[in-house]
Amino acid sequence: MNPEKDFAPLTPNIVRALNDKLYEKRKVAALEIEKLVREFVAQNNTVQIKHVIQTLSQEFALSQHPHSRKGGLIGLAACSIALGKDSGLYLKELIEPVLTCFNDTDSRLRYYACEALYNIVKVARGAVLPHFNVLFDGLSKLAADPDPNVKSGSELLDRLLKDIVTESNKFDLVGFIPLLRERIYSNNQYARQFIISWILVLESVPDINLLDYLPEILDGLFQILGDNGKEIRKMCEVVLGEFLKEIKKNPSSVKFAEMANILVIHCQTTDDLIQLTAMCWMREFIQLAGRVMLPYSSGILTAVLPCLAYDDRKKSIKEVANVCNQSLMKLVTPEDDEPDELRPALQRQAEPNSEGSVTKQEGSASGGPDGSCDSNFGSGISVFTPVSTDRAPVTLNLDGIVQVLNCHLSDVTIGMMTRIAVLKWLYHLYIKTPRKMFRHTDSLFPILLQTLSDESDEVILKDLEVLAEIASSPAGQTDEPGPADGPDLPVSHSELQVPTPNRASLLNTPSTKGLECSPSTPTMNSYFYKFMINLLQRFSSERKLLEVRGPFIIRQLCLLLNAENIFHSMADILLREEDLKFASTMVHTLNTILLTSTELFQLRNQLKDLKTLESQNLFCCLYRSWCHNPVTTVSLCFLTQNYRHAYDLIQKFGDLEVTVDFLTEVDKLVQLIECPIFTYLRLQLLDVKNNPYLIKALYGLLMLLPQSSAFQLLSHRLQCVPNPELLQTEDSLKAAPKSQKGDSASIDYAELLQHFEKVQNQHLEVRHQRSGRGDHLDRRVIL
């Protein structure tokens, strides 16, 4: 500093003392400056006051010499003290040079700058609020200062500034939010602690409504929640908890839509505490905002669904995610199935009521849990843009939801509970929005069929519920052309086909569905036949699926749909099956289910007596396909009490190729006859006179069997048949013998027998062709 320079009105002694390295001498100079400025204030000499402040600022506080800067800082503080209430007129000139010194490399100088600013603010009080942003910016830097003395001084200044803001009602929140939004992303733990402390203070001031600006800072708060410091995380939890309490008190003033995507992102993070806290917020948002959250459903599901598969280590997240999922599902209503152009133009995003619309909340109001757990779905975070904006009609983004559900169902790594939740969603959407959902059925159908191979029975059950709803919903009826009728036309499994109107009319018989079925009409739609074709195709390509899960799948379908329709359509399709070996296997499976499953009790009773035209038509349809397997054909005749025809069939067995597999099936039929399902047949053996062909048929089976346990079993049963002469009564003598149980003029048994011979000849030709290629193992038994 040039000693010859004129610093008037500062005296040379004051200038010399301000430049001294000793603090005490600089303090004496500050007292002199205070006295000098007081005189100028008394004289109302603003020109000299400004000159003193400018000199202290330019020549001292901003000087290159460190001692001069220290002197300038204490001089500016002295000016502020002397000015008193009038310091507000000169705050810009007083504060700016002091804030510049906050960036000084000398820690002692930064401390003096903090001390000087404290004195300036203490005098000015509320007058500093117009300069709050620059003060806050400077303090946020000092909060992360490495020097403990500087940090301690900044904390004193920080508390003073907080007291002033709390006392005042003139705080400019709108002007402060941009700075807060910028500073909240600081990675320094001390700066984060400083930011959180200020948010807590602002939230506690009644006249400051920080909730209006929560969308601006919510993302940053969740970032801070992931800090490594335990204390900072706890502080951030408290802040988020206070905000959530405020949201519950005043839901009508909350901008839920603006924060939805922020929560979606943080619900997918790998940090356990962030994920759980965000999920708790999401739960409250869905329950408070209601249908306002619908446009964000695809994003919410992306975040929530993977959490449903978490194990007990992540139980808290799983439970909250489950509540979110259930609450979101309830928001989808039948009105979402209305065409968008027909929806009421006046429907707007409903502002939730503060009392009536707020449902009972679950969990604590803290906004975050005490426990922690990890997330395994943090990668690939995405934000979903909503279809609707504020004040626009709430629109369900069904395309986005279906895409998310399809993606999760296709992912083989997804857990069982997530897959079940996806299937529940699909079922719910088909119930609530069937018309819109059927636009996506062609894309969903393959993955739903593939899911039948899942390892979990529960997943398969839910999958079958969805497929059953698709197959039975009236919304799925189309006018597409179906395959031509006729037994000689094969059906290509590579193409989805629908029934013709004639065939559809055969399937439109009354039925009852399972307990957890939709209220839709059980009449089968166009997708029912598609489903049957593709299901049989899957059984054909995956024989293990047929063997392990086939009976289970078919039995459950019989509960969910109409059993008669299922057997009628499958028999119709198998009649045109080109793979005769698969047809025989499938017929055997269906026959076993028909004869043994409790789910088919009603259908068995319908077939037992063939009293109605419908039951006779069903028998003929089943019979034609059952001809792919001779033994199952006989068992069908036993079930329907067509004993004479059963005897005629067994007579034809002498012309068939008797193999080990054939004899095994006869053996199983004998075992089946001893089961409760054929109790009525065994009792009919008492009426020898009226059931001669039943006894002949059983003896025919006995003659087919080699000397085995089945032979002995059937032989013992036939030995129990009483002598008809011993059982004759007057009534029995008058009664005319019946040639055929269940005989009906509408059934052409001769034609059925011809059809049986035709099918068996086809099987024989196929076996001979295989034998000619050398890939057929001759398993015939020489009797």
UniProtKB/TrEMBL annotation:
Q: Does the keyword Repeat apply?
A: yes
Q: Does Repeat count among this protein's keywords?
A: yes
- Pfam families xrefs: Vac14_Fab1_bd, Vac14_Fig4_bd
Q: Where is the composition biased (Polar residues)?
A: 350-364, 494-518
A GO cellular component annotated for this chain's UniProt record is:
endosome membrane
SUPFAM superfamilies, per the entry: ARM repeat
| Residue ranges of every copy of the Vacuolar protein 14 C-terminal Fig4-binding domain listed in the record | 543-721
Q: What species was this sequence derived from? A: Fukomys damarensis (Damaraland mole rat)
What keywords does the record list, in alphabetical order? Endoplasmic reticulum, Endosome, Membrane, Microsome, Repeat
Outline the segment boundaries, as ranges, of region: Disordered: 347-371, 472-518
Q: What family is this? A: Belongs to the VAC14 family.
Main subcellular location of this protein, as a coarse class? membrane
According to its UniProt entry, what is the function of this protein?
Answer: Scaffold protein component of the PI(3,5)P2 regulatory complex which regulates both the synthesis and turnover of phosphatidylinositol 3,5-bisphosphate (PtdIns(3,5)P2). Pentamerizes into a star-shaped structure and nucleates the assembly of the complex. The pentamer binds a single copy each of PIKFYVE and FIG4 and coordinates both PIKfyve kinase activity and FIG4 phosphatase activity, being required to maintain normal levels of phosphatidylinositol 3-phosphate (PtdIns(3)P) and phosphatidylinositol 5-phosphate (PtdIns(5)P).
What compartments host this protein? Answer: Endosome membrane; Microsome membrane
According to UniProt, the name of this protein is Protein VAC14 homolog
The Gene Ontology biological process annotation of the record reads:
phosphatidylinositol biosynthetic process
Subunit description: Forms pentamers. Component of the PI(3,5)P2 regulatory complex/PAS complex, at least composed of PIKFYVE, FIG4 and VAC14. VAC14 nucleates the assembly of the complex and serves as a scaffold by pentamerizing into a star-shaped structure, which can bind a single copy each of PIKFYVE and FIG4 and coordinates their activities. Interacts with NOS1.
